[in-house]
Specification:
InterPro entries: Phytyl_CoA_dOase-like. It comes from Kribbella steppae. The chain is of the alpha+beta class. It contains 7 helices and 10 strands. The mean pLDDT is 96.
Length: 269
C-alpha cells in the first residue's frame, strides 16, 4: 500500500527570481508548494506524534525562554510511516537542492515546532550554530500546517543576514534576542515579517538569522520543518556542546572530517 500523495513526488516550478532571492537574502517564501488537501492528509498524524512524543510537561509560566517558544519534537519520521512519507518528499527536497545549487541533498533531521497558545517569542538565532557542518550548504523548509496570521507567530527573517558573522556563537536565548536585535538593526538588515497562507512554505539557510513573535491566538501554531544538507557535506569538528550532541544524535557512526553518510541521513533528491 502506498501512502504518498502524488503532489509530494511531483516537481514544483521554482522561478529564477525565487532562486536569486534566496541567494541574495538567505531565505525565500514560496506559494502553493503544498495543497490544502495534502496538508490535511498529514497534519493529524504529525500533530498526534507531537502529542505522543513531546517531553515538555512544565506549565508555560515555569519554562525558560526556549521552552516557552515552542514544543520541539525531532525525527518524527522514525516513529511514523506516514511522517516518513512526508519528510521524504522529493518535491520538497528538490526545491532545497535547487536553492542550494547542489546536485543532491540528504535529510539531516526533521523537527515539529508547535508554538502553543500563549507561547512566547522565539529569540533571534541562526540554526547552524547547532550543526557541525563544514560549509553553509544546509537549509530548513518551514511548513506551517495551518494558515499562519501575524498574531500566531510566523517566522521573521533578517534579509541578507546569512553573510553576517556576528552573533553566530549565540544559542537561542534572551541574550541572543537582545544582542542580535541590536546588531542586525545597526547593520540595516531589513526584517521581513509576513503571514503564511495555507500551502505557503519558506526555505532559509543555516546562517540566516530569524525569530518569531509570540502566539497570541487560542490555537497552537503547528509547523513541520525538514533540514536538508548537501549530500556531499563534510562534518566539521564540533565547536560547542550542542554540535557534539547533534553529531552523536543525527549522524551516528560519522566523525569530523567524514562526508555525512549515516543511515539516518538518506539522500532524498
Amino acid at each position: 500500500m502506498t501512502l504518498t500523495r502524488p503532489e509530494l513526488v511531483t516537481d514544483y516550478t521554482l522561478s529564477r527570481s525565487a532562486v536569486s532571492h534566496f541567494a541574495e537574502h538567505g531565505f525565500v517564501k514560496l506559494r502553493n508548494v503544498l495543497s490544502p488537501e495534502t496538508i490535511a492528509a498529514y497534519e493529524p498524524e504529525i500533530t498526534g506524534k507531537v502529542i505522543e512524543l513531546n517531553t515538555q510537561h512544565l506549565p508555560l509560566e515555569e519554562r525558560d525562554t526556549y521552552g516557552k517558544a515552542f514544543l520541539q519534537v525531532m525525527n518524527l519520521w522514525q516513529d511514523s510511516e506516514q511522517v516518513l512519507d512526508f519528510v521524504s518528499s522529493p518535491r520538497l527536497a528538490r526545491i532545497a537542492a535547487q536553492l542550494l545549487g547542489v546536485q543532491s541533498v540528504r535529510l539531516y533531521h526533521d523537527q515539529a515546532l508547535y508554538k502553543e497558545s500563549g507561547g512566547g517569542v522565539t529569540p533571534w538565532h541562526a540554526d547552524q550554530y547547532y550543526w557541525p557542518f563544514a560549509t553553509d550548504r544546509c537549509v530548513t523548509v518551514w511548513v506551517p500546517l495551518q494558515e499562519t496570521p501575524m498574531e500566531m507567530g510566523p517566522l521573521s527573517f533578517a534579509a541578507g543576514s546569512h553573510v553576517f558573522e556576528h552573533g553566530r556563537d549565540l544559542p537561542i536565548s534572551d541574550e541572543s534576542e537582545q544582542v542580535l536585535q541590536q546588531a542586525l538593526a545597526e547593520q540595516d538588515f531589513t526584517e521581513v515579517s509576513e503571514p503564511y497562507e495555507l500551502g505557503e512554505v519558506s526555505y532559509h539557510l543555516g546562517w540566516t538569522f530569524h525569530h518569531a513573535p509570540p502566539n497570541q491566538t487560542d490555537v497552537p501554531r503547528r509547523v513541520m520543518t525538514i533540514i536538508y544538507v548537501d549530500a556531499a557535506m563534510e562534518i566539521s569538528a564540533p565547536v560547542n556542546k550542542f554540535q557534539e550532541a547533534d553529531l552523536a544524535a543525527w549522524m551516528p557512526g560519522n566523525q569530523p572530517g567524514d562526508q555525512i553518510s549515516s543511515p539516518m541521513n538518506p539522500v532524498l533528491y
